[in-house]
Amino acid sequence: MEKEFWLERWERAEIGFHQDDINPWLARYWPRLAAPPGSKVFVPLCGKSLDMAWLRKNRYFPRDARLRGYFDRAALGKTDSSVWGE
Q1: What's the Cα-to-Cα distance from 50 to each of 27, 67, 85, rounded to whole Å?
Q2: Left, alpha or beta for 64 (phi > 0: left; psi -120 to 50: alpha)?
Q3: Which of 34, 58, 60, 67 has its C-alpha lying 20 to 30 A from 80's C-alpha?
Q4: In the beta sheet, which residues pair with residue 4?
Q5: What are 10-47's pLDDT values in tens digits?
């Protein structure tokens, strides 16, 4: 594939990787980890996953190399304090 193909798809928000909800396995199995609220959680290859917002809403601190950019552009908006905890 050509670089321009993906750049154009990205600009039109047509990349096809993003889910409309959190990963169902996350919600189902997260309690088994027994991680205390306030824990830092590394989420590799997260992209714009809603899992990040779900973790933050549940008082965890998701971490990824590009986390700042995610919060700046998240679909829920940085001003939604119920998700971001600000």
Answers
A1: 12, 12, 15
A2: beta
A3: 34
A4: none
A5: 788 777 666 778 888 998 999 999 999 999 988 876 66
Instruction: End-to-end CA distance of the chain: give it in Å, rounded.
Output: 41
Helices assigned H by DSSP within 1-86: 3-11, 24-33, 50-57, 67-73, 81-84
Task: Tell whether the model's pLDDT for residue 58 goes beyond 60.
Answer: yes
Please state, in angstroms and rounded to a whole number, the distance separating the CA atoms of residues 36 and 4: 44
Tokens of residue 55, six digits = 């973790």
List the domain boundaries for the chain.
Answer: 20-84
Q: Tell me if 46 sits within 8 A of 26, measured CB to CB.
A: no
Are 61 and 38 in contact by the 8 Å Cβ rule? The answer is yes
**DSSP helix/strand/coil, 61:** strand
Euclidean distance between CA atoms 84 and 77, whole angstroms: 9
